[in-house]
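User: For my dataset I need records formatted as: sequence, then structure tokens, nothing else. Please produce one.
Assistant:
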Amino acid sequence: MAHPWLSSANKSPHADARRARFNSPAPGEAIIFPGVSVDSRPETRHSRPSKFLAMAGIGTLYLATALSVATVIYPLDDEAVFANPAYNLITSGHFGTNIIEHYNTLPGIETRTYWFQPLFSLLLAGWLQVLPVDLFSQRLLSVAWGSVALAAWFVLCARLAGSAWCATIAVFALTFDYVFLSAAGSGRMDMMNAALSWLGLALYLQYRDISLPRAVFLACSACALNALTHPLGAILGAVNLLLIVALLDIPRLQPRLLLSAAPPFVLVGSAWAAYIVQSPADFASQFLGNVHLTSLTGDTPRLSGLSNPPYALWRIAYNTVQDIYGPVDTALSAVSAKLLIPLAYLVAIAIAVSYPALRVHLLTRLLLLLCLIDFTLLALLNIRAKINYYIHVLPLFTILTVVVACRSHLLSRAVRCTAIACCAGVLLLNGARFAHSVHYNAYQTNYLPVQRVLRAVIPSDATVFAQSEWAFALGFARTRHDSLLGFRSGTRLHYLVVDRKQQYNMDIYSQAVPGFRQYSQTLLTDEYELVHQDSLVRIFRLRHHPFTARLMAQ
């Protein structure tokens, strides 16, 4: 008996003609039953060249857009932090993180990095053995994982929609999706994390009809690797995989499939355990400390959404609008045109839910469930909602909007035009955001001028208080990220860099951290002297220090 979620037709003999027409499969589209291929459309010899040609064109377009974004994004502090262990492994033979001041909350971090999963930085270390050790090379790794993500989504859409052209349009939309390109152009692990999540789903769908044990093994291999990349994507990927298995193959599941699922987790877990046993106490302190970490201003822990789900959902929705599509200032009646993108998503969701012709379609149902589940889990598991994490959710809405438009021929003319307009609007607005980012070029406008000043003013052997992204300009060995500027550690370095982000942090901490306002004023007037100032940065030099005396003598 077919699982009710998988039946593409209402079996009731009393269904009216309109409902029967809505629920009938399109030509070449099979009714889905457990254990039967979800893609029943035959591929002709004439369709293959056009499909490959289209995919080759989209692949080339993706490389052009992703590489463009990778060259213009302003460096993130996390990029340097996650590159730090890789750099140390290459140059010093240890996997420590020594660029950040952790105020004794992450013991042992200088020699072993346990506070985040190691796979991305380990892979980056190997990557930088081949390519130059710089920011762009690091971002190329994310660009490569973006191509894996695109391939995964092509397989997912083609297998579940039964249409290579629908899959092609969906992947085309991702090549201009602002959130997708931002992750692909960033040197963080988020794109790798999302790509492994989606790769597990694609591998399962691709091989489930050939060999279910093989499909389980390959999908679980991607999940196991993801568990060593980042916990958020690992959890979402595992939940999404279980959802697909529940929709398609519950009657086929047998205990012996555990023999296919277990080996990847045992192998990956053993490798991680071998690293953990080198210092179990440091692992417990670092990893659990990062999970429960609050900001210096006393912000809520990342897992606090579990204790108040309604607030967590409201906050993630608000942050999504403000951080990705804002700013929105109702008092000033200032609303960004980017806000039309989430409005188009909402209209597409409403159409997909309201019309049986779409609602009974397996891919549409799956995307609706993924959007709901992943958005909810993101809110519950990380209420602080860093912009980087939206890669796991927002591209799903883009793909859903495309799928609704592709199947809009089953709807009335007015609804069909609305669905197509939503899809076109998302594509155009994301394309405009991409063009604006490339034109503005924050890297060349805001980062390179400061980099030139830092290298000209600060001697090559001086140590520096600076935001961690300046390690790419100054070097990892002599850069220290401490937004409190030695307030808690008592450390004094030769130079101190106050850029716009550091100034923002100082303003926040002056209000939230008792005693910091007076400390920072005394520090910058009595202990340090201003040696350079422009619209982007101020540079201070430590007074009354042998290093400073030597510079003055020269």
